[in-house]
Amino acid sequence: MFRHKRSVKTLRQNLPYFILIILLVSASLILWLGGDVKMSDDLSVRLDLSSQFGEWNGADIFFCQNEKCMKSFAAGELKGVNICKSCGSHLVLSWSLGEKNLLPPDTMLLKKEYSNKSGMVMLVTVVIAGSEITSIHRPQMCLVGQGYRIVAQETLEIPIKGRESLSVKVLKLLFQQPSQDRSVKELSSIYTYWYTDGERETYNNFIRSFYMLVDRILFGKMSRWAYVSITTSGSDVKGEIVPFIQGLYPVITGVRKN
Length: 258
Ligand SMILES: [Zn+2]
What we know:
Blueprint: H1 2-32, E1 38-39, E2 52-53, E3 56-59, E4 61-64, E5 72-74, H2 75-78, E6 91-93, H3 97-102, E7 108-115, E8 121-128, H4 139-145, E9 148-158, E10 166-178, E11 184-196, E12 201-202, H5 205-219, E13 221-222, E14 226-232, H6 237-253
The site of zinc ion has 8 residues, from loops.
């Protein structure tokens, strides 16, 4: 009896995974049989991040493509010259070398560094998926791959005017940065994210994959999901990050059609 109960519980716990596997197998079968999957023309977010909203001013960010340097600069520091101040290499807007190597070329990437008068800085990154499913993945994986340690995580409901609240995931990160005197500096930051296809929003990558598969199998369509993240060295989630996202939300979602 006990064993039976336990197996029912295990089955219930793993049910979402079984459903996902069944959907994956069906999707593969449809693709194998030559099913026609159309990439959606609808974009999930606006294609430009505004250079100003509320008290925030946004700057473009440029990345050094020299793998030994990889420094980044806000547009204001460069005064219109696209050359790395540290090594003299060519700079590229928004794309770091790591992202260029990792993400499929039809991925769209938007970045802006927003700052306000009190000196607070929020880095906004929007990844818009292309035709390959590898454009977007769980941030937990690539953050750890980049040397960050996730020390805490929580989900947060952010009230947004005129609609239901937006659910986001908040990660507290630590990064050990070696300095020139060989001591190690520990930097803390907060990383907040969610996914959207313009209609649906979730911070859960499993649910996002589920929506994607349903669209693919039932409607033969591939939605262009976007992955929005905000990084800050600030630590006040309720006092700083929540009001920032409330201001940013309409900036990101303003226009949804291509
Ligand atoms: Zn450089």
